[in-house]
Every structure is written in structure tokens, then in C-alpha cells.
Amino acid sequence: MLFGVLLGIGVAQLLTLVIGKGTVALGVIVFFTFLAALATGIGLFAEGMMFANQAAISAILVVTLPGISGERAVDVLIGGGVALVLGVGLFPANPLLLVRDSELSVLEVLARILEQVAGFVRENEKPPEGWALDATQRVHEQLASMTRARSTAHAGVRIAPRRWRQRSRVDAEIARTEQLELLANEIVSTARHTAVQLENRERVPADREAQLSTLASSIRRLEPSRDRVRRRSS
């Protein structure tokens, strides 16, 4: 946010000197601000849209509200400075806990989906309409959350001095989550295939329900309690 705001102010101030202000100028300035944010944020800030959005918002404010540049810059410097001292220096988030919490959420949703599919097979009933799409979306939401947690944890152990000693543990945990991502995709594929078979009244292998139930139980055993995760991560 800090660098995004400052970038937006800088680009907007420069371009307003060249092309002036107005509706068309505003569109051009926002467009080039986005380009600048994407170009400068690659590998550092550009994994999400926060950096580019903050840059664009600041550019819009600079163009539409004359005289706000200084106030906006002071605001973000104060906020960023406080966050740097408190959030990074004194009380940084626990990166290991972030990754393990995200892992636990993925395991929970995978086990639930497997149990649901096993139930459908056992009762020989069609899943509710849209179930497969909803299940896929739930898994992908948790995987996206896990990706964000990995990114935050990776940065945390390299930026926050108090977390440097956890670097090797966090890197090992991140490597584990990459394997979990492969497992999640395979489970989604199996669940959707089984759901399609049931919907089309195709023959489902006799041992499919037992396989799904066994896999769900195995995942449940991998699933520590939230309290255990916090103790292991401290």
C-alpha cells in the first residue's frame, strides 16, 4: 500500500504536467499508472491487485482533488511507518501458523467433499444440482488462500528480524503445501468424475465408496486441531 500510493502520486503528478487534467487525461493517467505498477511490482508486490489498486486510486485522487498529493503522501508514510515498526519489527505475524492454518482449512474441505461423495455413492443418489461446481469452487478458494498464506509467510521470514530463525521450518512447510495442492486437484477430479457417473446413472465401481471413505478418514487423521497447530507453530 505504501509503495502503491507513492507510485500513484508520482505518476499522476508527472503526467498531469504533460497532458493536463480532464476526463480523457484521467483515463490515460490511470492506464499508465496500472502499467507502471505492474512493471515495477513484478516479483515483489504484483502477486495480488493491492499494489496496482492503491497506485490507481492515488492517481485518481491526485487528478480529481487538487492539493491532496501532500496529504495523501503524509498519511501513507505515517501509516506505513507505524505498521513497519509494530507489524514487522515488534509484533510480526507468525508465518508458520499462517501456512499451517491454511493447510488445515484445505484438509477440512477435502475431507468433507470426500465424505459427501462417499455418501452419494453409498445411497446411490444423484448429487444436488450444482454440487460438483460448488465443491470445486470451495477447494479452489482454499487453495488460493493457501497460496496467499505461503506468499505472506515467505516474505515474513525474510523481512521481519524476529522471524528469521523460522526460515528453514517455513520453507519446509511451504514445500509440503505444494504436495497438498497436487492432492487437492486429484481429489476434485475424482469427486467430479464420480458425481457425473451418478448423475448419468452410470455404473460406479463397487469399491469406490470404500476408497473414498478410507481417503477421507486418512485426511481427517492428518488434520490436527487448531490448538495443536498453534502450539506446534509457537
Molecular structure report:
It is a single chain. The chain has 234 residues and is mainly alpha-helical. The protein has two domains: 2-90; 95-233, no CATH class. It has helices at residues 2-19, 23-41, 50-64, 69-90, 95-123, 131-159, 167-199, 208-222, 226-233. The mean pLDDT is 88.
Strand and helix map with partners:
Layout: H1 2-19, H2 23-41, H3 50-64, H4 69-90, H5 95-123, H6 131-159, H7 167-199, H8 208-222, H9 226-233
Helix pairs in contact: 1-2, 1-3, 1-4, 2-3, 5-6, 5-7, 5-8, 5-9, 6-7
Alpha-carbon Rg, integer: 24 Å
Instruction: Tell me the number of helical segments per DSSP (H or I, 4 or more residues long).
Output: 9
Q: State the distance separating the first and last CA atoms.
A: 29 Å
Order of helices and strands: HHHHHHHHH
Give the uncertain stretches in residue-range form.
none
Outline the biggest β-sheet. none
* Helix fraction by DSSP (H/I, runs of at least 4): over 70%
Total beta strands? 0
Number of domains: 2
Quaternary: single chain
Give the overall average pLDDT: 88
Overall body shape: elongated
Strand content: under 5%
- The structural class is mainly alpha
